Amino acid sequence: TNYGKSMHLITIKYFLVTLSIIIVYVATALLGFEFASIKPNVTMIWMPSGVALAGILYFGYRYLLAIFIGAVIANIFSDIGIFSSLLIALGNTSEAFVASWIINFFFKSHLTIFDSPRYILVFCIAVICGAFAAALNGATVLAMQVLQNWEQFYEIMSIWWLGDAMGMLLITPTLLLWAQPPYNYPLKVIKRNLFF
To answer: CA-CA distances (angstroms) from residue 123 to 105, 133, 135, 182?
Structure first.
């Protein structure tokens, strides 16, 4: 039936978008680990945060699971253990949710975010709030589970906060603008051929 075919296509699209987000998230995370300021995974620019926010703003909240899975895989690569990876991944996911929720509260579409200085200010506030959630969570997990040392807590949190915020400020606008005409021709081709 047409309904069954439509559901099948929706399932394929969800799987492909989820897989794409996970791959890009993990790839940018592995690149970020190479420049970690505080080992194993605290860096001045965390590109995955920008990928996550752009993905949720463009594709919707239903892809938060992709962010969580990507974050778990990425953190496992940083050798902090599975349990700590799961906890930090929750913070990474909440970061994307908090920032995107604030943005969606004020804007009907992500296409209007950069239309005026006032809108850009709201975007920056959303980024700061989202990054704070991830930084507080991440620094706490590292201090308790990984480093077992609270002496670096504020240093870790401040760098984590800055790194995630910079990732969203630099990467999210780039990806969202790339997805708009006239720059989105490659994306339109991919959607036409893979997502029907």
So the answer is: 11, 16, 18, 23
- What's the predicted TM-score (pTM) here? 0.85
Per-residue DSSP letter, 75: H
Closest by alpha carbon to 84, among 161, 160, 149, 145? 145
Give the residue ranges of DSSP H helices in 60-145. Answer: 64-77, 82-106, 117-141
pLDDT tens for 65-116 read 999 999 999 999 887 889 989 999 999 999 999 999 999 998 877 667 777 8
Retrieve residue 139's tokens: 């620094």
Measured between alpha carbons, how far is residue 50 from residues 43, 54, 148 in Å? 14, 6, 29
Q: Are the CB atoms for 44 and 76 separated by under 8 Å?
A: no
Provide the residue type at 49 as one letter. S
Distance CA 91, CA 87 (A): 7
DSSP state at residue 110:
G
C-beta separation of 34 from 78 below 8 A: no
Residues 3 and 104: their CA atoms lie apart, in Å, by 30
Partners of 180 in the beta sheet?
none
Rounded CA separation 62/56 (Å): 8
